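Internal ticket - ligand job 389, 5,6-dihydroxy-NADP:
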Amino acid sequence: MDNFEFRNPTKIVFGRSTEHQVGAEVAPYSRKILLHFGGGSIKQSGLYDRVTASLRAAGVEWVELGGVKPNPRLSLVHEGVKLCKQHQLGLVLAVGGGSTIDSAKAIAMGAMIEGDVWDFYLGKGAPQAALPIGTVLTIPAAGSEASTGTVITKEEGWLKRAVNSDLLYPRFSILNPELTFTLPPFQVACGAVDIMAHLMERYFTNVRDVAFTDRLIEATLKTIIAQAPKVLANPQDYDARAEFMWAGTIAHNNLLNTGRVGDWASHDIEHEISGIYDVAHGAGLAVVFPAWMKHVLHHDLDRFVQWAVRVWNVELDVFNPEAVAREGIARMEAFFRSLGIGTTLASLGIHDDRIAEMADKCTDGNARTVGNFVKLDRDAVAAILRLAQ
Ligand code: NZQ
Ligand code: ZN
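stdout (structure tokens):
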């Protein structure tokens, strides 16, 4: 196990009706905030009314900015930054999913600088300050409610890039599983795949003797495999929703990364797909992950066998480990399909061939490799995308 430091400062407020506490959670930080949300689901569900009533009751004023799109855009971030500066707002409250939270994080960084926040996404310097961020989560998926990450798309060139900083841990995140009852089945499925991807990015590591976190990751994967079908069969199943939601946060709050180094190539490759084609991140991952696995299988067959046996209940066959590993991958693909998600680029409606372009962008023109388990250059990324066709 590697040395590590672990701290996750995000306060989680979990359970039924907890959105009514949002005003009380916000007030200690600021009495004048930006209320940030997506395309309208929070208005249809009545959540907007409950959140604003709670803010009002706590004496918190707000300026609002809705309209965050999945794969959140830089132009809206710029609008949010302008509002924060103009009205001297003291906190950004995201009510929605990963896209809204990531947009809020970008605004929180941009509000503290004179220049363009996009520079951080290009790796030009690191943020030194950010406004406090709070969230009311409506979809278990990205894990942004307790992560250091934000992923934004710049429309010009359709570049999707990430920033990670400890400054971006939300101060609090409110998780009420009831708020997820209204999710369309496709979004539930995409969320399940994204959560599983966050777990598997961490599972496939070159660090030895990480048995404890292996077991935690396997348990969290098995939780999603067990609960996602229940949620799809009965959208009002509170207990299944609750297990799913909490597993989604734990999958990405870095606890399961302690003492080990994750891979993250599949995420980097997927960001090129959703950057160009604007597909849901989870749907893109369902295409990339199986292809990545087939490409890197022989790097550490034992690890794949362990995963196949423990997570997918494949019978161990010591004389044919490759068959065991491949059966694990086949069961994972079948699981994704059982949720209604395709596992090929064609299933995403992608029939043109921009593989060379995506591989080039992903590796900055072959100037860098992606992934840690296996370091992938431009040709390797292209080979994975071809396997995904
Ligand atoms: O915009 P509204 O109307 O709210 O609709 C959303 C959106 O269309 C809808 N939705 C959300 N909650 C709902 C609901 N509809 C009905 N009822 C509800 N309760 O679902 C759609 C998807 O929302 P979005 O926020 O895009 O989903 P998700 O949480 O999957 O976020 C995806 C984004 O997160 C990034 C992805 O790249 C992608 O841009 N990621 C962020 C990470 C991070 N910050 O740590 C890590 C992840 O790996 C990921 O890359
Ligand atoms: Zn993800």
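Auto-summary: The chain has 15 helices and eight strands. Strands lie at 11-14, 32-37, 61-65, 92-96, 133-137, 149-154, 159-164, 172-175.
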